[in-house]
Amino acid sequence: MSTLLVRHAQVLATMDDDGTEIPDGGLFVVDGFIEQVGPTADLPDTADEVVDLSGHVVLPGLINTHHHFYQTLTRAVPGAQNVGLFDWLRTLYPIWARLTPQDVQISTQLALSELALSGCTTSSDHQYLFPNGSSLDDQIAGAAAVGLRFHAARGSMSLGESNGGLPPDSVVEDENTILSDTQRVIEAFNDPASGAMTRIVVAPCSPFSVTPEIMRESAALAREYGVHLHTHVAETLDEEQFCIETFGRRPVELMEDLGWVGNDVWYAHGVYINDPEISRMADSGTGVAHCPSSNMRLASGIAPVRRYLASGVRLGLGVDGSASNDGSHLIGEARQAMLLARLDAAPSIEGGRLLTGREALRLATRGSAAVLGRDDIGSLEPNKCADFIAVSLDGLGYAGALHDPVAAVVFAAPTHVDHNYVHGRAVVSDGELVGVELPILVERHNAAAARLVG
Q: Which domains does the chain have, with CATH numbers?
């Protein structure tokens, strides 16, 4: 049995149902699970590891519900900087077709390292193209070194340009191959247990890159094994028009027809969703990964966050791919979500209420956990996983913001966390990654990026 004692946090925000915040707070952890949470004076005096977090705000680890790790290799690519989604994809697909297994592994480690330093303890990733012998196994191997919980989404594309799809034929797969390999990785890697470090998600890329048949068969496969489903839906106006013109249905209506609704399903983006669709999503339990930075970067639009929350739709945060965000900073994404929701509310400010900093943090913790189907993470409570982050309040960025340290994490300029623990194990300690030699990783990553882009 291993124990961990966290003591003397200036404030510990539990994100429990009551929003409990504990001055001089702490945690007592046994074998990776929280046994006690409360004031330091009420906790045991000793443990195998004792961490004094005086002068820090402690929060549940943040959870990222949508990403494309491999895109860290193609940030700020000329020709993809100032265009919308479809032209952005057309520019980048030929570059991504050169990915090797080593590229996938390196980019996974780089993205997860960046996320860990920004407060993330659990991340999903949507890998939907597998050129040159690469596989989901490469991602899972790369993730192990960093130490974050990982929901690996086995994506797919089957409709190449020759069959009316958007991606080049060189990055699509045969549908039988897709289904058999998806079954293989579920059986090899998915862990359904509480506290699981790795889970598999079934994730065809989008309605314009696979056939309706593969969508239906993927849903059936996922439900046979009890794993979750993920895809891009209603990201842009172009996509909305594509669905109507091609299938005679709006995006959510199409998803309903394909069996892609329910509490085991979440969509990326969900920008172009109307009020009746929001109600139906809430009724079915279907979730959304809100990706504000990417939606702004590609000029896709503003997701109806306020209406999602008011209707009870499960809503979490995603940084999205690092070629449409160009960063993987989850605290920064929570801040962006708060600010963008306020901008969207601007015309009706007089009669409405602005999204608060705590609500943005709740999206990134409890909201994202619900989207991923996890009830063992997202808050600091007994019997939940000891996934937490700590931010020192002594730095320049928090000067003058100590009146409300919890809100300051979102309102102040984004910073790196000082400590990040996953299942009671340090991933970041005193601002440094524990399991990764970052300078070496960055050098290898830059060399791979240079080779890919040319």
A: 3-60+384-433 (2.30.40.10), 62-371 (3.20.20.140)
